[in-house]
Amino acid sequence: MKRSIFCGLLAAMLLSTPAQAAQVEQTQRAERSVVVQVDGHWLESRGVVRDGVTYVPLGSLLDALGDWTLTWDAGAAAAVAVSGERTLIADPTADTVTLDGVSHSAVVSVEQGRTMVPLRLVGELLGATVEWDPYLSGAAVTSPDAPYNAVDYYWLSRIISAESQGEPLEGQIAVGNVVLNRVESDQFPDTIAGVVFDQKYAVQFEPVENGTVYSDPYHLSLEAAGRVLDGETTVDGALYFYAPDLSPGTWINANRTYLTTIGCHRFYL
Predict the structure, then answer these.
(1) Cα angle at 68 between 62 and 69, to 5 degrees?
(2) What's this model's pTM, rounded to 2 decimal places?
(3) d(CA 217, CA 175)
(4) Treating both helix axes as pointing N-terminal to C-terminal, what angle do 169-184 and 150-164 enclose, rounded to 10 degrees?
C-alpha cells in the first residue's frame, strides 16, 4: 500500500515536472538580483530586475540620496517619506508613487518588510540621474547634488586603486590622468568605463584581467579620482604608464616618449 502511494506520488511529480520547470525558468529569466550604486558607492541593499524594470528598497535609496525620514502609515497601508517640505508616498495597494501631491502609476510591493519601488521612476522624480552600467551589470544613480557622474567616479576610483594603491597621491592622480587623457584622445573610447575596459588591441589594464578592478577602492584613491575629475593633473598629456618592477614595458619604451617617473610608475606620452 505504501509502495503504491509512493509510486503514485512519484508519477504525479514526474508528470508535473516539465510544466514546473518551465515556470521556474520563465521566472528566473524575468527576475534577477542586481547591484545598485549611488554616487560611486553601493546601495546598502541589492535591487531586483523584473521584466526589465529595476526595483529597490525605498528606504535604502532615500538613505543614499539624502535627508529623508521614512515611516509606514498603517492606516493608509503605504510608505511615507518626508524631507523638509517634500512628501513622497509609495502605495502598494493603489500601485502609485506620489510626490508632493502628484501621483504616478508604478508597481509598488512590500517584500520582507521593505517597500520596493521602481528605481528609475523614483530616482528621477527626486532629481537624480539613473542609468544602466553594463560593466557593473547593475544600475548607477547620480544624486542631484553630486559633483561627479556616478559611473565615472565609480570606475575611475577603482582603476586608480587597483593600479596604484599604496602609491603617493601624486602618483594616483597621474594614473587617473592617463585614463582621462585617453578619453580625450581619438585613439581610445570616449568614456571612462570604455577606456578602463578597452580591449580593442588587448586588455589595457591588468586589474581588468585579474579582477581587482572590481574591489572596493582605497580611500586615497577616492580622493584622487575626485581631484582628477576636478581637473587636477600631474602628468599632462600622458597616455601610458607601467611599473618597471612588474613589467619590462618593451612596447612602451620602443614606441612612446618618456615623460616622468612618479613612485613606482613610469609615464609616457
Answers:
(1) 115
(2) 0.83
(3) 14
(4) 130
| 197-223 average pLDDT score | 91
Task: Please state the separation of Cα 223 from the chain's center in Å.
Answer: 19
Decide: 125 and 135 in contact? Cβ < 8 Å: no
**What is the C-alpha to C-alpha distance for residues 184 and 237, in angstroms, rounded to an integer?**
10
CA angle at 243 for the pair 237 and 244, rounded to the nearest 5°: 120
Q: List the grid coordinates of 246.
A: 612588474
How does pLDDT run across 144-173, given as a tens digit for each residue? Answer: 999 999 999 999 999 999 999 889 999 999
Residue 97: all three cell numbers together: 508613487
Tell me if 209 sits within 8 A of 260, measured CB to CB. no
For residues 22 and 17, what is the distance between their CA atoms, to the nearest angstrom?
A: 8
- In the DSSP assignment, the letter for residue 216 is P
Could you tell me if residue 268 is left (phi over 0), alpha (psi between -120 and 50 degrees) or otherwise beta?
Answer: beta
CATH topology of domain 150-268: Arc Repressor Mutant, subunit A (1.10.10)
Q: Which CATH superfamily is domain 32-142 in?
A: Copper amine oxidase-like, N-terminal domain (3.30.457.10)
CB 192 within 8 A of CB 156: yes
